[in-house]
Every structure is written in C-alpha cells, then in structure tokens.
Amino acid sequence: MNAFSLRACAKINVGLEVIRKRPDGYHDIQSIFVGIDLHDTLEIEEADTQEVVCIPPVTDSPNENLVSKAMKLYASTFPSENHGAKITVRKRIPTGGGLGGGSSDAATALLAMAMINGHTLSPLIIQLLTPLAEKLGSDVPFFLHAGISLVEGRGEHITPLHISFPWTILLICPGIHIDTAMAYSTLGIRGEQVKDNLVDKFVQLLDNNSLNGEDLRNDFEPRIFELNPILANVKARLHDQGAIFSSMSGRGSTMFGLFTSVDNAEKARSAFAEMDTYICHPVNASFMTP
Fold it and tell me: Burial, 21: exposed, middle or buried (Cβ in 10 Å; 0-12, 13-18, 19+)?
C-alpha cells in the first residue's frame, strides 16, 4: 500500500448536556453525535519520515497539528511497526466551529497508520486505537465508531445508535471562532446537573418530525448566544425558514437546521447568502474511502 486517501467527516450535536465538572478538570457530557458527509481528505503516502502538510494551514507549526500528534502517538505505542508516512490534509471542514474537524482528522490519521502497516480496519483495530484516540482529545474516539452515537463521559463512552436520520442538514457558518476553554469556563456549573434521556428525545424527534429546542438543548447556547447575538439570530432565522429543529453544533459557532427535503434546505440556504453554508447528509461511518 504505497498511497491511498481517506475522508474524515464532520459531525453535528443533536443535544449537548454538560453534566458536571470532573476532578481532573474535564467535563462529563452526554450528546448525540451525527457524522455528516462534509469532510476533510487525508492523502497518505509511505515515506521514510513523518510529515504532515495541511492545506490550508490551521496551526503555525505542523508539529502542533493533531494529525502529527496522532502519528507520533501511534509510533510510540507500536514501536515495532513502520512509522514513516506523509499525510496531506486537505481541509474543508471549518475550524473552530464545533464540527470536530481536527478530531476527525486525528482519528483518521490513526486509522491511516494502521492501514499503512497492513492492518484491516476491524473491531479489534478500533479497540486497539481507542485508548490513543482518548489521549488525543475528547471528541476523537467518536470518529473511530459509528456515524450516529450517544456520547457520554468526557467523550470516551460511545454507544452506536442504529437509527435512521431522514433529514437534510443545512449548516450555517458565521465565521466566528469559539475557544473551547472559554466556552467551558462560561458554563458556571456547580455540582451535578440533571441528565435527560437524549435517546428517547431523539426518537421523539424522529416520530414527530419536530421537537422543541429546549427538549434537546445545547448547554453552551445561552452564554455563547449572549456573547455572540448573531448566532441566536441565525437559529431564529432557521426556524423562520422551515427547519423542524435547529441548534448550535458543539461549542459553536456553526448553526444547523434539519429540513424534510433537499429542496427545502436549498430554499432556506438562499436566506443566508452572507455566510458560508453547506448542505449535508448523515454518513454510516465516521471515516470514508473516496
């Protein structure tokens, strides 16, 4: 296997509840992650050394890129395997928008390193790579698993949901970068928060084709909206354009609406000409071969 490519998909969060702050400084969450077909592309070539090229760049130094960190972690964990590779990351997922692009790239880089070494992508390989993914970031483990999952803990507890997702997704990207540490610091969580049954609420959304946004809430929205009123405006406009559900994805700033057809999503898209927009659909796996 001299050269190949993989697609690293983005995700949206349908509901995101922050349950508590942990003694280790992280937060326990529960959320439904939905992998979507907006993706970065990783082009992988065998090489004598490790090299990462990101187009366009997302960090000042390639060594700070999560893909580079994933490659080094793989090498240190499996010292008897071949560690050389050049990975070119062609970015399409907006950065800092709550879509998990960097985390998806990191997970896909772990998969790429396994494939370079002749491993077939199997449940056993996923099991071996999951502890590495947990070290790289809270969202990274999801991208080794199914396209729709209940995600709990700090992101390490993944329960695949074998549920259809019939809607067309319209992403609205206002171009605002939300810092992760800042987002968590504004929550003001003290003690344990009420934990809802997100799966039941998600099924209710499926059955009724609508659901109050407060039932599937994103705990980051109140404070992030207060700091960035444009995002609250986008959410309201998505409802005005016929979205059956709208929310901020992750810690923001990407907003999304769910529509019953591509035509309806396209019509709504025209109302956001001043912003970057994407029409997406769910994917059955978090990584894809072209």
Answer: middle
Query: Domains of the chain by range and CATH?
Result: 3-161 (3.30.230.10), 168-280 (3.30.70.890)
Share of the chain above pLDDT 90, in %: 59
Q: Residues 40, 105, 139, 219: which is the catalytic one?
A: 139
Judge whether 195 counts as a catalytic residue: no
Question: 30 vs 20, 27, 78, 127, CA distance in Å?
Answer: 10, 10, 32, 21
- Active-site residue flag, 60: no
pLDDT digits (tens, 9 = 90+) for 127-180: 999 999 999 998 999 999 768 999 999 888 999 998 889 999 999 999 887 766
Cα gap 83→156, rounded to integer Å: 26
Average pLDDT, the chain: 87
What's the longest Cα–Cα distance across the chain? 57
* Residues 262, 11, 42: CA angle, nearest 5 degrees: 105
Which of 11, 69, 201, 235 is an active site residue?
Answer: 11
- 105: its two tokens: 């790239």
Task: Give the closest residue to 130 by CA, choosing from 115, 140, 121.
Answer: 140
Cα separation, 167 vs 250, in Å, equals 19
Which segment of 44-53, 196-205, 254-263 scores lowest on mean pLDDT? 196-205
Q: What is the structure's pLDDT at 213?
A: 59
